[in-house]
Amino acid sequence: MSSNESTKLLWTAVGAAIAGAGVAVAVLKYSPARYSAPKDEEPSFPPLHQKRTSFIYENNASSSNSVIFPHNHEERMRRQITARAAVEEDNFMPRDSVTVRVPATSANMGPGYDTIGMAVDLWSEVTVERADTFEITAEGEGATEMPKDETNYMVIGCKAAFEAANKPLPILKYHVFSRVPFARGLGSSSAAIVAGIIAGLILAGHRLPCWGSEALLQIAAGIEGHPDNVAPVIYGGIQVGIHNGTRWVTERVPCPAGLQLVMFIPDFIGKTSDARSVLQPTISREDAAYNISRVAFLVHALCVGNLDNLKWGVEDRLHQPQRGGKLYKYLYPMIEAAENAGAACAYLSGAGPTVMAITAGASGDIFAQREKERSDLAVAKAMRQAAKEFGVQGQVVVTNVSNEGARVVKVVPPFSTGGITYRDNI
Ligand SMILES: Nc1ncnc2c1ncn2[C@@H]1O[C@H](COP(=O)(O)OP(=O)(O)O)[C@@H](O)[C@H]1O
Ligand SMILES: N[C@@H](CCOP(=O)(O)O)C(=O)O
Q: What are the residues facing 398 on neighbouring strands?
């Protein structure tokens, strides 16, 4: 290399270093990290109904083009929310009518009492509309049994939504087409609560903060008292929820593909409140350790897709032995029969009386699989036989886990406008 070339290289390097330092200073000075909330403090945003195109970048030093550090998830979310909110601004006006679909859920999954729950591919559809007189009509599961007055959870959910919106509850009429078995341990109450809240929010034209506060979850779990049903109704999949001392927090647990759910649903009703009252108020350290180990095993088995470990993972000493002993004598014999017939595991769904067996199919829809690849039929037969031996009448329903939670399927006036069409043209 000539001395000329090396001098040129030296100056290029010096120039690059100065430019780099300049960028670094600019980045540090204007980095969005400077505007993030102090540690341990929730970032406070203006009310969500306010025009938001300005609130994130009120301080002009930070523009939407400024650098986001890889770890700065919060800033990235704020920008995404801002962009989306600008598009959706028009959609937050009060509505006349809304229809929401909500899934059944299977809580506890054995040892995860009041903590773990799974969305089940069985859906109810709730329509709430403004009316001159209050009315509740229902068809399908529990149509005659569910309350038709203000104690109905759809109404309680709707009321909570209007309270959150700080608006008086208008006169509304409710219609539910229910496919979630009523008071059978498949989360009919949580489905009604979540449907009511979502419908109420949309009718009121109010939206709740999601990221960082999950306000919908707070309201729903506040009404239900535990998050194991409402979290999967809202978010779908398998959810593990806690209360962190300040608020409810839920996380999705990965769900292995191709699971089938084989449910024995007795013909009789089992109210959750009754099934909670048979539980002992305290448990031994040994039983606590037992349940901790099983929950850990369950979550691990789901995460790595090790279905062989599920049968250990669903074992429990917190509620199943008491409920099985006092209310559902068929429970353990049915679990054994299902597992012997090829189920990966079986447990009491929620507070019962339904027993849930999980079987592993090949990939694709079960109706497109050869019988050899499916164990749901053998498991269903074994569960029915066990029920017969105990004189319990009921039906077996086979379905899947739903990775999706509650969704709005119709709104009047619609969200879709000439310019933007939302899915299903809602
Ligand atoms: N819209 C509704 N759908 C189902 N149950 C409701 C509804 N509104 C109120 N309930 C009450 O909730 C109870 C059913 O909930 P629960 O006992 O927890 O069973 P599940 O396992 O189905 O959630 C019943 O006593 C019923 O009166
Ligand atoms: N953790 C609760 C779950 C109740 O579920 P449900 O579907 O029976 O309402 C309990 O075990 O009590």
A: 262
